Amino acid sequence: MDDLPADSKTHLQWTNVGLGLSFVLFDAALSRVLGLGVGGSLLTAAIRCVVQLAVVATILQRVFATDSMLAVAGIALLLNFMGTFETVANKCTRRYRHMFFAVLGAMLLSTIPVSILGIRFAMNIQPFWKPEQYSTLPSILVLSQLLTSAPVPIVGMLCGSTISNIAVSVNYFLKELDENRDKTETYLAFGASRIEACMPVAKEALRLALTPTINQMSVLGIIAIPGMMTGAILGGSSVQQAARLQMVIMFMISSASTLSCIITTVFAFVIVLDREHRIRQDRIDTRIHAVWRARDWVVRSVVYAVKSACWHVWGKVRKEKREDEGEEDGLPDE
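RESULT FIELD:
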Protein backbone atom coordinates (compact mmCIF):
# COMPACT_ATOMS: atom_id res chain seq x y z
CA MET A 1 0.00 0.00 0.00
CA ASP A 2 2.83 2.37 -0.77
CA ASP A 3 1.05 4.05 -3.66
CA LEU A 4 -1.70 6.55 -3.02
CA PRO A 5 -4.78 6.64 -5.24
CA ALA A 6 -4.70 9.18 -8.03
CA ASP A 7 -7.65 11.12 -6.65
CA SER A 8 -5.82 11.73 -3.34
CA LYS A 9 -3.65 14.47 -4.79
CA THR A 10 -4.09 17.84 -3.19
CA HIS A 11 -5.19 20.82 -5.29
CA LEU A 12 -4.98 24.04 -3.32
CA GLN A 13 -6.63 27.34 -4.16
CA TRP A 14 -5.91 30.84 -2.85
CA THR A 15 -8.76 30.37 -0.38
CA ASN A 16 -6.77 27.53 1.17
CA VAL A 17 -3.77 29.83 1.44
CA GLY A 18 -5.96 32.43 3.12
CA LEU A 19 -7.14 29.87 5.66
CA GLY A 20 -3.51 28.98 6.36
CA LEU A 21 -2.71 32.67 6.78
CA SER A 22 -5.30 32.84 9.56
CA PHE A 23 -2.83 31.00 11.81
CA VAL A 24 -0.32 33.81 11.34
CA LEU A 25 -3.02 36.41 11.98
CA PHE A 26 -3.87 34.62 15.22
CA ASP A 27 -0.21 34.68 16.27
CA ALA A 28 0.03 38.37 15.41
CA ALA A 29 -3.08 39.16 17.46
CA LEU A 30 -1.73 37.13 20.36
CA SER A 31 1.56 39.01 20.12
CA ARG A 32 -0.33 42.31 20.26
CA VAL A 33 -2.32 41.24 23.34
CA LEU A 34 0.77 40.01 25.18
CA GLY A 35 2.89 42.97 24.07
CA LEU A 36 5.58 40.78 22.48
CA GLY A 37 6.26 43.20 19.66
CA VAL A 38 6.63 40.56 16.95
CA GLY A 39 3.22 40.87 15.32
CA GLY A 40 4.44 43.27 12.65
CA SER A 41 7.39 41.05 11.83
CA LEU A 42 5.09 38.03 11.53
CA LEU A 43 2.75 39.82 9.12
CA THR A 44 5.63 41.21 7.07
CA ALA A 45 7.24 37.80 6.81
CA ALA A 46 3.92 36.21 5.84
CA ILE A 47 3.29 38.80 3.12
CA ARG A 48 6.83 38.33 1.81
CA CYS A 49 6.30 34.58 1.82
CA VAL A 50 3.12 34.83 -0.26
CA VAL A 51 4.50 37.33 -2.76
CA GLN A 52 7.89 35.66 -3.17
CA LEU A 53 6.52 32.13 -3.57
CA ALA A 54 3.89 33.33 -6.05
CA VAL A 55 6.52 35.09 -8.15
CA VAL A 56 8.94 32.16 -7.94
CA ALA A 57 6.21 29.69 -8.93
CA THR A 58 5.42 31.76 -12.02
CA ILE A 59 9.08 32.03 -12.99
CA LEU A 60 9.83 28.35 -12.39
CA GLN A 61 6.82 27.30 -14.43
CA ARG A 62 8.23 29.21 -17.39
CA VAL A 63 11.74 27.86 -16.77
CA PHE A 64 10.50 24.28 -16.66
CA ALA A 65 8.57 24.85 -19.88
CA THR A 66 11.70 26.06 -21.71
CA ASP A 67 13.51 22.76 -21.02
CA SER A 68 16.83 24.64 -21.15
CA MET A 69 19.97 23.94 -19.16
CA LEU A 70 20.97 27.61 -19.38
CA ALA A 71 17.66 28.68 -17.86
CA VAL A 72 18.10 26.22 -14.99
CA ALA A 73 21.68 27.44 -14.43
CA GLY A 74 20.50 31.05 -14.45
CA ILE A 75 17.85 30.36 -11.83
CA ALA A 76 20.37 28.48 -9.68
CA LEU A 77 22.78 31.44 -9.83
CA LEU A 78 19.96 33.86 -9.08
CA LEU A 79 18.96 31.84 -6.01
CA ASN A 80 22.54 31.96 -4.73
CA PHE A 81 22.77 35.70 -5.41
CA MET A 82 19.51 36.44 -3.59
CA GLY A 83 20.53 34.14 -0.74
CA THR A 84 23.82 36.03 -0.44
CA PHE A 85 22.03 39.37 -0.29
CA GLU A 86 19.60 38.07 2.33
CA THR A 87 22.49 36.77 4.43
CA VAL A 88 24.66 39.88 4.24
CA ALA A 89 22.01 42.58 4.30
CA ASN A 90 19.38 41.13 6.64
CA LYS A 91 20.67 38.21 8.68
CA CYS A 92 24.13 39.40 9.75
CA THR A 93 24.37 42.17 12.34
CA ARG A 94 28.13 42.42 11.78
CA ARG A 95 29.97 42.27 8.49
CA TYR A 96 33.56 42.24 7.33
CA ARG A 97 35.09 43.77 4.23
CA HIS A 98 34.09 42.20 0.92
CA MET A 99 31.72 39.90 2.79
CA PHE A 100 29.19 39.84 -0.05
CA PHE A 101 31.65 38.30 -2.48
CA ALA A 102 32.97 35.92 0.19
CA VAL A 103 29.47 34.65 1.02
CA LEU A 104 28.53 34.43 -2.66
CA GLY A 105 31.64 32.37 -3.38
CA ALA A 106 30.99 30.14 -0.37
CA MET A 107 27.40 29.48 -1.42
CA LEU A 108 28.35 28.77 -5.03
CA LEU A 109 31.19 26.46 -4.00
CA SER A 110 28.90 24.54 -1.65
CA THR A 111 25.43 24.45 -3.20
CA ILE A 112 26.33 23.96 -6.88
CA PRO A 113 28.83 21.05 -6.56
CA VAL A 114 26.78 19.31 -3.86
CA SER A 115 23.57 19.60 -5.89
CA ILE A 116 25.22 18.35 -9.09
CA LEU A 117 26.90 15.38 -7.41
CA GLY A 118 23.82 14.54 -5.38
CA ILE A 119 21.43 14.70 -8.30
CA ARG A 120 23.74 12.85 -10.69
CA PHE A 121 24.99 10.06 -8.43
CA ALA A 122 22.90 9.86 -5.23
CA MET A 123 19.59 10.36 -7.06
CA ASN A 124 20.83 8.71 -10.25
CA ILE A 125 19.27 11.37 -12.50
CA GLN A 126 20.66 11.81 -16.01
CA PRO A 127 21.19 14.43 -17.21
CA PHE A 128 21.67 15.96 -13.77
CA TRP A 129 19.82 19.14 -14.70
CA LYS A 130 16.68 17.33 -15.91
CA PRO A 131 15.31 14.23 -14.12
CA GLU A 132 14.00 11.30 -16.09
CA GLN A 133 11.21 8.93 -15.24
CA TYR A 134 12.36 5.95 -13.16
CA SER A 135 11.49 3.10 -15.49
CA THR A 136 12.33 0.46 -12.87
CA LEU A 137 10.39 2.20 -10.07
CA PRO A 138 6.83 2.87 -11.26
CA SER A 139 5.80 4.06 -7.80
CA ILE A 140 8.12 7.07 -8.01
CA LEU A 141 6.77 8.45 -11.29
CA VAL A 142 4.85 11.20 -9.50
CA LEU A 143 7.87 12.02 -7.36
CA SER A 144 10.07 12.51 -10.41
CA GLN A 145 7.40 14.79 -11.84
CA LEU A 146 7.45 16.80 -8.62
CA LEU A 147 11.21 17.23 -9.07
CA THR A 148 11.04 18.46 -12.64
CA SER A 149 14.19 20.46 -13.30
CA ALA A 150 15.55 19.07 -10.02
CA PRO A 151 18.54 21.41 -9.56
CA VAL A 152 16.28 24.41 -9.01
CA PRO A 153 14.26 23.19 -5.99
CA ILE A 154 17.27 21.36 -4.55
CA VAL A 155 19.57 24.38 -4.88
CA GLY A 156 16.79 26.43 -3.30
CA MET A 157 16.66 24.08 -0.32
CA LEU A 158 20.44 24.14 0.03
CA CYS A 159 20.53 27.95 -0.14
CA GLY A 160 17.77 28.28 2.44
CA SER A 161 19.69 26.11 4.89
CA THR A 162 23.09 27.71 4.33
CA ILE A 163 21.71 31.22 4.91
CA SER A 164 20.91 30.52 8.56
CA ASN A 165 24.12 28.57 9.16
CA ILE A 166 26.36 31.26 7.67
CA ALA A 167 24.59 34.00 9.63
CA VAL A 168 25.10 32.18 12.93
CA SER A 169 28.76 31.38 12.34
CA VAL A 170 29.74 34.83 11.05
CA ASN A 171 27.76 36.72 13.70
CA TYR A 172 29.33 34.74 16.53
CA PHE A 173 32.86 34.91 15.12
CA LEU A 174 32.75 38.68 14.54
CA LYS A 175 31.02 39.35 17.86
CA GLU A 176 33.76 37.52 19.77
CA LEU A 177 36.49 39.43 17.93
CA ASP A 178 34.68 42.74 18.36
CA GLU A 179 33.18 42.73 21.85
CA ASN A 180 35.11 39.93 23.57
CA ARG A 181 38.48 40.30 21.93
CA ASP A 182 40.47 40.47 25.20
CA LYS A 183 40.98 36.72 25.38
CA THR A 184 42.14 36.50 21.78
CA GLU A 185 44.48 39.47 22.20
CA THR A 186 45.93 37.83 25.32
CA TYR A 187 46.79 34.75 23.31
CA LEU A 188 48.38 36.95 20.64
CA ALA A 189 50.35 38.93 23.24
CA PHE A 190 51.85 35.70 24.63
CA GLY A 191 53.14 34.71 21.21
CA ALA A 192 50.31 32.65 19.78
CA SER A 193 49.74 32.89 16.04
CA ARG A 194 46.48 34.22 14.70
CA ILE A 195 45.39 30.67 13.86
CA GLU A 196 46.09 29.42 17.38
CA ALA A 197 44.43 32.44 18.98
CA CYS A 198 41.25 32.30 16.89
CA MET A 199 40.83 28.55 16.56
CA PRO A 200 38.64 28.21 19.72
CA VAL A 201 36.37 31.01 18.50
CA ALA A 202 36.11 29.53 15.00
CA LYS A 203 35.34 26.06 16.36
CA GLU A 204 32.59 27.39 18.60
CA ALA A 205 31.13 29.44 15.74
CA LEU A 206 30.98 26.39 13.48
CA ARG A 207 29.55 24.24 16.27
CA LEU A 208 26.75 26.73 16.93
CA ALA A 209 26.02 27.11 13.22
CA LEU A 210 25.80 23.37 12.51
CA THR A 211 23.91 22.37 15.66
CA PRO A 212 20.42 23.08 14.18
CA THR A 213 21.20 20.96 11.11
CA ILE A 214 22.48 18.11 13.26
CA ASN A 215 19.44 18.31 15.54
CA GLN A 216 17.09 18.38 12.59
CA MET A 217 18.73 15.32 11.05
CA SER A 218 18.64 13.42 14.34
CA VAL A 219 14.87 13.80 14.86
CA LEU A 220 13.69 13.11 11.30
CA GLY A 221 11.28 10.22 11.12
CA ILE A 222 10.94 9.79 14.89
CA ILE A 223 9.57 13.18 15.89
CA ALA A 224 9.40 15.26 12.69
CA ILE A 225 8.18 14.38 9.20
CA PRO A 226 10.07 16.76 6.87
CA GLY A 227 8.29 18.95 4.38
CA MET A 228 9.87 17.45 1.28
CA MET A 229 8.76 13.95 2.25
CA THR A 230 5.29 15.16 3.18
CA GLY A 231 4.92 16.98 -0.14
CA ALA A 232 6.02 13.93 -2.09
CA ILE A 233 3.55 11.70 -0.22
CA LEU A 234 0.70 14.17 -0.73
CA GLY A 235 1.63 14.27 -4.40
CA GLY A 236 1.02 10.54 -4.67
CA SER A 237 4.56 9.19 -4.44
CA SER A 238 5.70 5.98 -2.78
CA VAL A 239 6.28 6.49 0.95
CA GLN A 240 9.48 4.43 0.83
CA GLN A 241 10.88 6.37 -2.12
CA ALA A 242 9.92 9.68 -0.50
CA ALA A 243 11.76 8.68 2.68
CA ARG A 244 14.90 7.72 0.74
CA LEU A 245 14.76 10.96 -1.21
CA GLN A 246 14.51 12.92 2.05
CA MET A 247 17.56 11.09 3.41
CA VAL A 248 19.62 12.09 0.39
CA ILE A 249 18.45 15.70 0.56
CA MET A 250 19.24 15.97 4.28
CA PHE A 251 22.74 14.64 3.69
CA MET A 252 23.20 17.18 0.90
CA ILE A 253 21.94 20.00 3.14
CA SER A 254 24.35 19.05 5.93
CA SER A 255 27.27 18.90 3.49
CA ALA A 256 26.47 22.25 1.85
CA SER A 257 25.93 23.92 5.23
CA THR A 258 29.24 22.66 6.56
CA LEU A 259 31.20 23.74 3.49
CA SER A 260 29.62 27.21 3.35
CA CYS A 261 30.17 27.86 7.07
CA ILE A 262 33.81 26.80 6.91
CA ILE A 263 34.52 28.93 3.84
CA THR A 264 32.87 32.09 5.20
CA THR A 265 34.53 31.67 8.60
CA VAL A 266 37.93 31.27 6.94
CA PHE A 267 37.31 34.43 4.91
CA ALA A 268 36.33 36.29 8.08
CA PHE A 269 39.45 35.04 9.83
CA VAL A 270 41.78 36.08 7.00
CA ILE A 271 40.24 39.54 6.62
CA VAL A 272 39.72 40.51 10.26
CA LEU A 273 43.13 39.26 11.44
CA ASP A 274 45.98 40.60 9.32
CA ARG A 275 49.38 39.05 8.66
CA GLU A 276 50.83 40.95 11.61
CA HIS A 277 48.56 38.90 13.90
CA ARG A 278 46.42 41.89 14.84
CA ILE A 279 42.65 42.14 15.19
CA ARG A 280 41.53 44.80 12.71
CA GLN A 281 38.36 46.23 14.20
CA ASP A 282 38.26 48.79 11.41
CA ARG A 283 37.39 45.92 9.07
CA ILE A 284 34.29 44.97 11.10
CA ASP A 285 31.18 46.96 10.21
CA THR A 286 28.44 47.07 12.87
CA ARG A 287 26.21 49.53 11.02
CA ILE A 288 23.11 48.53 9.11
CA HIS A 289 23.84 47.49 5.56
CA ALA A 290 24.61 50.16 2.98
CA VAL A 291 21.48 49.24 1.02
CA TRP A 292 19.24 50.09 3.96
CA ARG A 293 21.23 53.23 4.75
CA ALA A 294 20.69 54.33 1.16
CA ARG A 295 16.99 53.47 1.44
CA ASP A 296 16.66 55.53 4.62
CA TRP A 297 18.45 58.45 2.95
CA VAL A 298 16.12 58.29 -0.04
CA VAL A 299 13.06 58.13 2.22
CA ARG A 300 14.27 61.11 4.27
CA SER A 301 15.01 63.05 1.09
CA VAL A 302 11.58 62.32 -0.37
CA VAL A 303 9.83 63.23 2.90
CA TYR A 304 11.82 66.46 3.14
CA ALA A 305 11.03 67.34 -0.48
CA VAL A 306 7.32 66.67 0.01
CA LYS A 307 7.24 68.75 3.21
CA SER A 308 9.09 71.59 1.52
CA ALA A 309 6.70 71.50 -1.42
CA CYS A 310 3.67 71.49 0.88
CA TRP A 311 5.02 74.40 2.93
CA HIS A 312 5.81 76.30 -0.29
CA VAL A 313 2.30 75.77 -1.64
CA TRP A 314 0.76 76.62 1.73
CA GLY A 315 2.82 79.80 1.99
CA LYS A 316 1.86 80.82 -1.52
CA VAL A 317 -1.82 80.25 -0.81
CA ARG A 318 -1.64 82.27 2.41
CA LYS A 319 0.16 85.08 0.63
CA GLU A 320 -2.46 85.23 -2.11
CA LYS A 321 -5.20 85.16 0.52
CA ARG A 322 -3.65 88.08 2.41
CA GLU A 323 -3.29 90.05 -0.84
CA ASP A 324 -6.95 89.44 -1.67
CA GLU A 325 -7.99 90.57 1.82
CA GLY A 326 -5.83 93.67 1.48
CA GLU A 327 -7.44 94.59 -1.84
CA GLU A 328 -10.92 94.17 -0.32
CA ASP A 329 -9.99 96.42 2.63
CA GLY A 330 -8.67 99.09 0.27
CA LEU A 331 -11.88 99.37 -1.76
CA PRO A 332 -13.79 102.69 -1.17
CA ASP A 333 -17.21 102.52 0.46
CA GLU A 334 -20.14 103.20 -1.85
